User: Which sequence fits this backbone?
């Protein structure tokens, strides 16, 4: 796990270089039309637990602030409790 932690700065740098070559540039996602993809969506639910919950919180913030989507974040155990 320490190896992966130490690789994180390089991975983030490579991803940013690949998909966002400069701060002024639009994000490129390999030809995906994001407007079409998200058309008609007004809310996103993210389900995560454990360490993925931390990444999900960042994604939630990005969806709410950058894309202006309402975004819920729940842990799997809470879904089953609330479903009954």
Assistant:
């Amino acid at each position: 796990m320490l190896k992966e932690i130490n690789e994180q700065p390089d991975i983030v740098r490579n991803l940013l270089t690949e998909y966002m070559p400069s701060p002024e540039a639009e994000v490129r996602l390999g030809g995906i039309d994001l407007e079409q993809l998200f058309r008609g969506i007004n809310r996103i639910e993210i389900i995560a637990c454990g360490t993925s919950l931390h990444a999900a919180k960042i994604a939630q913030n990005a969806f709410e602030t950058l894309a202006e989507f309402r975004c819920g974040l729940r842990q799997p155990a809470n879904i089953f409790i609330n479903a009954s």
Observations:
- Helices lie at 2-19, 34-38, 52-65, 76-83.
- The mean pLDDT is 83.
- DSSP finds four helices and two strands in the chain.
